[in-house]
Every structure is written in C-alpha cells, then in structure tokens.
Amino acid sequence: MADDLTIAFVGAGNMAGALIQGLIRTTTIPSTHIIAADPDQARLDLLESDLAIRVTQSNDAAVKSANVVVLATKPQVFGQVLPGLASSLQPGTLVISIAAGISTRTIERVLPDGTHVVRTMPNTPALVGAGATAVAAGAYATDEDLALAQRLFESVGIVVQVPESQIDAVTGVSGSGPAYVFAMIEALRDAGAREGLPEATALQLASQTVLGAARLLLERGEAPEALRQKVTSPGGTTLAGLQALDDNGFRDAVQGAVRAATRRSAELGQMAEGSND
Ligand SMILES: NC(=O)c1ccc[n+]([C@@H]2O[C@H](COP(=O)([O-])OP(=O)(O)OC[C@H]3O[C@@H](n4cnc5c(N)ncnc54)[C@H](OP(=O)(O)O)[C@@H]3O)[C@@H](O)[C@H]2O)c1
After folding, report:
1. What is 177-262's CATH number, 1.10.10.10, 1.10.3730.10, 3.40.50.300, 1.20.140.10?
2. Does the predicted TM-score (pTM) go above 0.90?
3. Most buried one in 24, 94, 260, 267, CB count within 10 A?
C-alpha cells in the first residue's frame, strides 16, 4: 500500500479502532500517517499509546493533513460533522464513509463539488480481522478510489464491490448478519442445555461449530448444499434435525430477517436524506 497516504479517521470508536489496528498490522502504512479525531481524549490517549498514531480532538486539523478521510462517527452526528469538514478537505481527497444508511449523495451535497466519496458497509467481526465489507462508489469516485478503499478494508477481512443500490441488502445480510448468527448460537446453547449439557459446554460447542462450518465452506470452496448433503445420511440424526428446522420455518425466518433489515436500512437512509434537505 502506498506510503504517501495519510488517513484521517473522523470518529475513533469501535469500527475506526478495528480498522486502524488492521491497517497497522497488515499494511506498510506508517502509524504516523494515521490520524484519529474524536471528542473523547481518553480514547485518543489509548490509541496514541497502543498504536503510536497521531490523535487530535479537532476534526478540522485531522482532515487538513489527509488525502484519505474515513467518516466513522455514528450516522446521527453526520449532520453536524459534515459541514465542518467541507472547508478543511484538501482537493482530491478520497472520503470513505462507514456509516449505515447515509448515501453518497447526502455526503456529496455537503462537501465541495466533485468530492470523491466511497460508501462502505463493514461488520463487527472486523474487530477480530474477520470482517465482511461491501464498498460502493459515489458519483465522482474512480475505479482507483474503489480499489484503494478495497485494499484498506481488506486489512480487516474480505471485501466485495457492489453498486450503492445494493448496500441496503448488504446491510440485511452481512451488516446485521452477525447478530442473526449470535441468535442462532444462543438458541443452540439453550437447546443443548435443555438436552442435558452444561450451558458453558453447549456454548463452546455451538460457537466452534459455526466457526468450523464457515471455515469448511470457505476453504473447500464447495456449495453449502453439497456440504449439507454430505453430512446428511438417510435415516440419520442430521436429517431428523434438518427436517425439524424446515417444519419450524427456519428458512422463512432467515429470509424475513434479511428482508426486514434491508427495508429498515432503506428507511433510515431516506430519513437521513430528508433531514439533510
Ligand atoms: N458497529 C457496527 O456493527 C457497525 C457496522 C457497520 C457500520 N457501522 C458504522 O460505523 C460507524 C461507527 O460505529 P461504531 O460502532 O464504531 O461507533 P462508536 O464506537 O460510537 O464510534 C463513534 C465515535 O465517534 C465519536 N464522535 C461523536 N461525535 C463526533 C464528532 N462530532 N466528531 C468526531 N467524532 C465524534 C464518538 O465519540 P463519543 O462516544 O464521545 O460520542 C465515538 O468515539 C457508524 O456510522 C455505524 O453506522 C458500524
């Protein structure tokens, strides 16, 4: 990764912290080329002492010295953060947003004309380097901008490129997805405990089973249908379990979750758009 990048993070919370750690761990970007801005001085002190990055309470100061700016505050404060950045951005700076529900159009309308904006949707496994992020180009972003955003987020997991119209669906699948998997693990733990396992043992087995199944799928490159069939013998235990899942509407429940989260993401985006008019 180019050593001439200086990356400013506006907002230095959980996701920004994960990304900064990933960049330092897996790229050649010097830690002194990363600057984090946040109102919370204690958080900044921790980032400075742990990761030797530059820190400031001033968004303006951070953005002035950067050629890539990552917008990493909660979406609710974008309305107050963005106007302040408009006059500090260097010409040609790439602006990458990680905020749920804020469109590139909403950002572009506040920043100087022609600002290159890339919107992303990461997820919380980025905190352990196993994230899934989608990146989407705004109106003025180039292929090089997308490629750079992709490389940055690859430091905390896998990255896919999508048109922005698909970001709500990404939110429904992988943005909110970790919570569905946690719900599945909770259900496995509780069900295991009801069948007589100690709760802690059931939780350990359930968590490792989800991790192991996902790794098997990704590392073998086989379709999930093929792997499922391989472990399902006629008259066996897995078939009995799968039939009970089907009888209880498992697939419909998952589809319903993705549909509801996708729609909610679109609604939140429309509300953010309206509040910036
Ligand atoms: N966490 C997820 O699962 C996830 C997944 C995908 C996308 N995202 C997106 O990632 C973004 C950050 O989420 P997060 O979980 O990292 O939130 P977070 O931990 O709350 O981080 C946000 C940080 O921004 C700071 N901040 C507040 N106002 C600010 C301002 N005016 N200027 C600069 N910094 C300011 C906050 O400080 P204070 O705490 O002092 O207010 C906080 O340290 C959100 O937009 C979210 O939609 C999160």
Report:
1. 1.10.3730.10
2. yes
3. 94
